[in-house]
Amino acid sequence: MVQFEENKKWNVEGKYAVITGATSGIGLAAAQELARRGADLGIVARNRSKASEAVSLINAASGGRVKVDVFIADMSSQSSIRQAAAEILASCPKVDILINNAGAMFVSRKLTVDGVEMTWAVNHLAPFLLTNLLLDRLKESEHARVITTASHGHKMAKKGVRFDDLSAERLYSFPLNVMGGANYRYGETKLANIMFTAELAKRLEGTRVRAYSYDPGLVSTNFNQDNGRLARMTMAVMKKFSRTPDKGAETMVWLADSDEVGDQNGLYYAEKQIKTPSAQARDASAAKRLWEVSEDQVRQTI
Q1: pLDDT for 23-72, tens place per residue?
Q2: Known catalytic residue at 186
Q3: What is the DSSP letter of 35?
Q4: Which of 184, 186, 212, 214 is catalytic?
Q5: Residue in 196, 116, 205 with CA at minimum distance from that of residue 148
Q6: Residue-range domains of the chain with CATH
């Protein structure tokens, strides 16, 4: 169970939190802990069967004392995200916390139904679009938070976001090694998560919404299991050095539940502390450009 200090001015009890990627791994661990602490939840899941299993686990964690809603969405599809957002807005009179946690990595280049490279679509454009679609509802809360799961892996993107290759056509053909292009692309999307958070915070100035990104650390989950034998072998080795999902979820839960971060905005965290991300992540002009490019890619402005 995630450890946390008691007697806070702000906590999640009675708050409504929407969380993506909550059917397994750190998302499920966080959802269970938030439910234990009294938060009502809206979990966004791709698979209804897995969502039902997650709801059972979340209800068991809370003793059935909180509400758990399910919204089905394919996070690689913009129309599916829009449909889920419309359902959330129709059924949830308030959203206090949005946790953008769903993520993926693909060894080979794939395109979504929208013609966008898959890793970029799921890891960056999905949280960008969902946040924008729910932002007005978040602003209606007395205090609201947007939390996005980034990664220490953002430092792999040493050249920053490749604005001249957003579709990753050259990246995946670059002969580094079997995982080279995929690793850089994944790092690039995690870099985008941090830049998105920083730019979102600027655009939220004067509102009661705060934005945070964080690194959960190397966590033992089912991540990267659908990318072939080599990827599975790599993850099997990494698991020996990985933390549990509960441990990986601690900073996510802390950012949702802590009164301590209420006046902070746009920052990056790890181990429940503010951390300094890479120089590329701190490039304000690149973050602004990323926002504008992302608006074009999802055809959504605020």
Answers
A1: 999 999 999 999 999 999 999 999 999 999 999 999 999 999 999 999 99
A2: yes
A3: H
A4: 186
A5: 196
A6: 16-218+245-298 (3.40.50.720)
